[in-house]
UniProtKB/TrEMBL annotation:
Lineage: Bacteria, Bacillati, Bacillota, Bacilli, Bacillales
Family matches, as InterPro entries: AAA+_ATPase (IPR003593), P-loop_NTPase (IPR027417), Signal_recog_part_SRP54_M_sf (IPR036891), Signal_recog_particl_SRP54_hlx (IPR013822), Signal_recog_particle_SRP54_M (IPR004125), SRP (IPR004780), SRP54 (IPR022941), SRP54_GTPase_dom (IPR000897)
Protein name, per record: Signal recognition particle protein
The protein's Enzyme Commission number: 3.6.5.4
Record-level Gene Ontology MF annotations: 7S RNA binding; GTP binding; GTPase activity
Domain comment quoted from the record: Composed of three domains: the N-terminal N domain, which is responsible for interactions with the ribosome, the central G domain, which binds GTP, and the C-terminal M domain, which binds the RNA and the signal sequence of the RNC.
GO terms under cellular component: signal recognition particle
Keyword annotations: Cytoplasm, GTP-binding, Hydrolase, Nucleotide-binding, Ribonucleoprotein, RNA-binding, Signal recognition particle
Organism from which the protein derives: Salisediminibacterium halotolerans
SMART domains hit by this protein: AAA, SRP54, SRP54_N
Broad EC category: hydrolase
Length: 439
């Protein structure tokens, strides 16, 4: 989803004027991107309609940067679709707050019980009790007990011979006695939604009236996750959703449609297997992430307006194969200058700030003029093959360009570093496809 949307948006960004036709074409692309990402088609339809309506409105088309305005609208509508504001956990007026975790087998319920407990203690200084009410899956109780031990938190269990309803009731009672302020109930799942499971969950719900009934769904299952959410919500009146495995979800379809389809907010996102891999879900951040609208976009945009695309590709290939010449270097520097202060550009590149040798490459206009003069004083053979530059050639070049030998040497060094940096960067680019799911 990210890649496709970003491609479309990038095209849009460079545009000075946007026509209604442009918006239409762009929306067609966005629509495809969303469908490809396994977003529910009804959600897509409404989304496109909403964006179109706002985007072809006068204030967008007439604004100075209509391309950007359209993107802003897409971002805002996407945020709205995912719930707008961040949705917080409800708390009981009188502790303990009871949280019931429900969901299909393997969705991540038990893991999330541990993660949520850890989060509540770490971020809110709360004391949770974990309740083991999955008596069906072999080793489910053990799994929770192990988590409890790792986190140094109490786990309530009555073994697997007592009904889950009774376990839940007793756990809440225990928490009251021990002044624990949260009870987080782990429940059983099934491979598919079935009535027997729903009945049991309903009974637990009636018995302990949880403040939160959280559905745990696996984001990687895309539209299935949304269907599951719909069935659970119909039967159990969910108060929230925890989207797990967002770290492995590259399409984002579930994140986008769950709220729209079930009208239940996504409250947390699971982004890994460990106990600290849980974060409050921020619709806005998720939208920006999906659209790739961080600083990287700004960078791409800046580069795009200055670098002719074919030429850029050619250069990139040269960088990779390492046969960048001084002529290319000169051209690069010219473009870099047009893009703005180099430091600023580098800051926008993820990881670039940490690159070694970066600080030695600084360009101001005066330096650039010198560099240009030096390069122009080289012969064609020297530009293509800097290793030819021995002491006498360097002296000749310094003289010809009105500079000094140390300056020529410095440029050679910079050129070398630039080559290295370019190599590093093109290496990075290749590894960039798999982004972390965090927000
Ligand atoms: P349950 O059957 O719903 O209780 O699911 P579990 O809590 O046992 O989790 C099933 C598997 O999913 C385990 O291997 C977890 O480590 C894994 N898992 C849970 N949440 C996440 C997550 O956010 N990211 C990743 N990568 N794995 C997760
Ligand atoms: Mg479990």
């Amino acid at each position: 989803l990210q890649e496709r949307l970003q491609g479309t948006l990038k095209k849009m960004k460079g545009k000075g004027k946007v026509t209604e036709q442009d918006v239409k074409e762009m929306m067609r692309e966005v629509r495809l991107a969303l469908l490809e990402a396994d977003v529910n088609f009804k959600v897509v339809k409404k989304f496109i309609a909403d964006v179109k309506e706002r985007a072809v409105g006068q204030d967008v088309l007439d604004s100075l940067t209509p391309g950007q305005q359209v993107i802003k609208v897409v971002n805002e509508e996407l945020t709205k679709l995912m719930g707008g504001e961040q949705s917080k956990l409800r708390a009981a007026q009188k502790p303990p707050t009871v949280v019931m975790m429900v969901g299909l087998q393997g969705a991540g319920k038990t893991t999330t019980v541990g993660k949520l407990a850890n989060y509540l203690r770490k971020e809110h200084n709360r004391k949770p009790l974990l309740a083991a009410a999955d008596i069906y899956r072999p080793a489910a109780i053990d799994q929770l007990q192990t988590l409890g031990k790792q986190l140094d938190m109490p786990v309530f269990s009555l073994g697997d011979q007592v009904s889950p309803v009774e376990i839940a009731k007793q756990a809440v009672k225990q928490a009251k006695e021990d002044h624990q302020d949260y009870v987080i109930i782990d429940t059983a799942g099934r491979l598919h939604v079935d009535q027997e499971l729903m009945d049991e969950l309903q009974q637990i719900k009636e018995a302990v009236s949880p403040d939160e009934t959280l559905l745990v769904v696996d984001a990687m299952t895309g539209q299935d996750a949304v269907n599951v959410a719909e069935s659970f919500n119909n039967q159990l009146d969910l108060t929230g959703v925890v989207l797990t495995k967002l770290d492995g979800d590259t399409r984002g379809g579930a994140a986008i449609s769950v709220k729209a389809v079930t009208d239940t907010p996504i409250k947390f996102a699971g982004i890994g297997e460990k106990s600290d891999a849980l974060e409050p879900f921020h619709p806005e951040r998720m939208a920006s992430r999906i659209l790739g609208m961080g600083d990287v976009m700004t960078l791409i945009e800046k580069a795009q307006t200055n670098v002719d695309e074919d030429r850029a590709k050619e250069l990139e290939k040269k960088m990779r194969t390492n046969d960048l010449t001084f002529d290319d270097f000169l051209e690069q520097l010219g473009q870099v200058k047009e893009m703005g202060p180099l430091d600023e550009l580098l800051e926008m590149m993820p990881g670039a700030g940490k690159m070694k040798g970066m600080k030695n490459i600084q360009v101001d206009d005066k330096q650039l003029a010198h560099i240009e003069a030096i390069v122009r004083s080289m012969t064609k053979a020297e530009r293509d093959n800097p290793s030819l530059l021995n002491a006498s050639r360097k002296r000749r070049i310094a003289k010809g360009s009105g500079t000094t030998v140390p300056e020529v040497n410095r440029l050679l060094k910079q050129f070398d570093e630039m080559k290295k940096m370019m190599k590093q960067m093109s290496g990075q680019q290749k590894g960039k496809g798999k982004k972390k799911g965090g927000m």
